[in-house]
Amino acid sequence: MSARIRILLIDDHPVVRTGLRAVLEAESDLELVGEAESGMRAVSLAHRLRPDVVLTDLLLPDMDGVAVTQRVRAELPETRVVILTSMDEEDASVVRAVQAGAMGYVLKSANTAELVQAIRSAADGQVHLSARAAARLIQEMRSPKNEVALTDREREVLRGLAIGRTNKEIARSLDIALTTVKSHVRSILDKLGVDSRTQAALYAVRSQLLSPEELQAA
After folding, report:
1. Which one of 109, 126, 160, 167 is most buried, by most CB atoms within 10 A?
2. Range of 40's domain?
């Protein structure tokens, strides 16, 4: 990732984009590389610009932010997504957005510092959810089961997910093929009963499936 975090902003309200642009441009480590007013335009721009982080509203005129998240995460796995919305964090959309792969969920009523931190966290591969949003998500996930049995290699891959590594980075650190990592990730999601890498990472932390020592980034 470049020294500056490259951001694509998606919101259908010009006034909102103007305000967010001012916030982002005030931070020396953030760079706004593009703006879009619709989901389809955003996906197209994301392919062309390859931003580090996509910052998107949930309510868009053509496709919602969850669909945008799904497309970006499926087609551009190196790009992280942060949801910025006025919808309540206990809304079901929180679960849908994180299941789709969003790394952060920030209310438009939040202060500037929280928004900026969410972007930085996402760029570093870290999940950023408010306590209420995280609690709602955990409620929707299956209850932790002590009998979850991961192989040693699956634990190593899960650790990589939990500390924010991409599949390529996990493959490199474990000296295994990328296809092998993808196979392990599918197996981990199935065993944990979750739908996304983000949920798997949260599960590992909240259920203490991995020890604090294992969760220390290398």
Report:
1. 160
2. 5-140
Cα–Cα distances in angstroms (integers) from residue 204 to residues 169, 207, 212, in the given order: 19, 6, 10
Same-domain check for residues 111 and 178: no
49-79 pLDDT per residue, tens = 999 999 999 888 888 888 999 899 889 988 9
How open is the CA angle 19-94-80, to the nearest 5 degrees? 65
Q: Is 55 in the same domain as 95?
A: yes
Say whether both 34 and 127 belong to one domain: yes
Query: Which residue type sits at 13?
Result: H
Q: Which of 140, 160, 181 is the last residue of a domain?
A: 140
Alpha-carbon distance of 75 to 108, in angstroms, equals: 27
Nearest to 162 by CA among 117, 119, 200, 133: 200
**pTM value?**
0.66
pLDDT, tens only, 171-200: 999 999 999 999 999 899 888 888 788 888
Domain count within the chain: 2
